[in-house]
TrEMBL record:
Keywords: DNA recombination, DNA-binding. Residues 195-386 form the Tyr recombinase domain. Residues 245-265 have a biased composition (Polar residues). This is Phage integrase. One of its GO terms (biological process) is DNA integration. It comes from Actinomyces urogenitalis DORA_12. One of its GO terms (molecular function) is DNA binding. PANTHER family: PHAGE INTEGRASE-RELATED, PROPHAGE INTEGRASE INTD-RELATED. SUPFAM superfamilies: DNA breaking-rejoining enzymes (SSF56349). It comes from the Bacteria. Belongs to the 'phage' integrase family. Coiled coil: none annotated. The keyword Repressor does not apply. InterPro entries: DNA_brk_join_enz (IPR011010), E3-bd_dom_sf (IPR036625), Integrase-like_cat_sf (IPR013762), Integrase_catalytic (IPR002104), Integrase_recombinase_N (IPR010998), Lsr2_DNA-bd (IPR055370), Tyrosine_recombinase_XerCD (IPR050090).
Length: 406
């Protein structure tokens, strides 16, 4: 047939469209993926890969109904561009909404005083002199504190995740013989350039905690001065917090909060051996934790230390919403819960922790190296916490922060 010129490539059969193939892909991968990762793939597929994306009818791209063999590199590039534009617009809207909400929560006299360079506390009663000066100035109302334009594309992280999922799915389709090559070959689409994290100063940590709902203030301080991951903070039980020795208060990380495939909260073991650790905390944070445990935590050793006001686990979405409002209040719209972990690592570093001690403290090491790091920190962790307490107890100190890789 080839010699006669009558040969044709066999017609591709079974699953023909992306919408038909992705469920099969996820089913086959379910056994080898963590439930939270599988849930992430589900959400990426449903929200971005199999949904129409774009900011206008003219730019909308829908890959779901396209046969696998007809997905081309230009089509993938158009889809990725439309997705980035959509996510950027959504991120900008969320930031603006949070800034407006924070402005409404802040007394206009306080915002005016801060903008005028008048030293006023982030919360609490305003001095009469400040109120009088604000009234004399015509009672000006503050404008929302919006994120300054840094050139960063805030939607690129999710876009790169969605692109990597699409590329992985199409790689599997190649292996299955459904297509002869992978069209997901858009340069740079699979990477997102994270901006340089600017650690919070001790004063900013205190202001952020004060702007949080009362039941999350101690969690904010703990995250910022211990370097725990958000999931580790919100998986702590009463039994994991040992405040019996005022000279060596500790939290022990044995669990982490994660989610199932359908985004239900669950508690699991840390990913690596390095994640299991005991961290000494500053005395100032210990006092905040003691007040929190007495005020907000249910009795019993297994009670979750940090819960919602109704006693349920604090979901990632709930703490993210609280963070969005609080960070807008202090004018740091770049801050996330993971940012507090970075801040804790940086403050520990400038307090004198060695790299081995630092990696052990934040549980950021390979299983082989973790044992060395844990041994190195055993005799120094209390000293590091004592040094950190200097910053926590005097949040107005100006502390020069040098950059530290996460």
């Amino acid at each position: 047939d080839v010699l006669r010129g009558t040969w044709t490539a066999p017609t591709l059969t079974a699953p023909t469209t992306l919408a038909e193939y992705i469920p099969t892909f996820l089913t086959h991968r379910a056994a080898e993926l963590r439930p939270s990762t599988l849930g992430l793939y589900d959400r990426l597929a449903r929200s971005f890969v199999l949904a129409p994306v774009g900011t206008s009818p003219a730019t909308t791209v829908d890959l779901s109904t396209v046969p696998l063999a007809q997905i081309t590199t230009p089509l993938v590039r158009d889809w990725h561009t439309a997705l980035c534009d959509q996510l950027d617009r959504s991120a900008t809207t969320r930031t603006t909404t949070a800034a407006v909400r924070a402005t409404r929560r802040t007394h206009p006299a306080r915002a005016w005083a801060q903008a005028s360079g008048i030293d006023v506390p982030a919360t609490g009663r305003l001095p009469r002199t400040v109120l009088a000066a604000w009234q004399a100035a015509g009672r000006p109302q503050p404008a929302p504190h919006l994120r300054e334009d840094t050139g960063r594309r805030p939607g690129r992280c999710q876009a790169s995740q969605a692109y990597r999922l699409l590329r992985t799915v199409l790689n599997q389709a190649v292996e299955d013989g459904l297509i002869d090559h992978n069209p997901a070959r858009v340069r740079g689409a699979g990477t997102s350039h994270a901006p340089e994290r600017k650690p919070l100063t001790p004063a900013e940590v205190s202001a952020l905690a004060a702007a949080m709902p009362p039941h999350l203030r101690a969690a904010t301080l703990l995250a910022a001065y211990s370097g725990l991951r958000p999931g580790e903070v919100f998986a702590l039980r009463r039994r994991d917090i040992d405040l019996s020795d005022p000279t060596n208060p500790t939290v022990t990380v044995e669990r982490t909060q994660t989610s199932t495939r359908n985004r239900q909260p669950t508690i699991g073991a840390p990913k690596t051996a390095a994640g299991r650790r005991t961290v000494t905390i500053p005395a100032t944070v210990a006092r905040a934790l003691a007040h929190h445990l007495d005020t907000y935590t249910a009795p019993g050793p297994d009670a979750l230390a940090f819960t919602t006001t109704t006693g349920g686990p604090v979901l990632a979405s709930q703490r993210s919403r609280a963070m969005a409002t609080a960070r807008a209040t202090i004018g740091r719209n770049d801050v996330t819960w993971h940012h507090l972990r970075h801040t804790g690592a940086t403050l520990a570093a400038i307090s004198g922790a060695t790299m081995a001690e630092l990696q052990a403290r934040i549980g950021h090491a390979s299983p082989r190296a973790a044992a060395i790091y844990q041994h190195a920190i055993a005799g120094r962790d209390a000293q590091i916490a004592a040094a950190l307490d200097t910053y926590a107890a005097t949040p107005t100190n100006v502390v020069p922060l040098r950059r530290l890789s996460a």
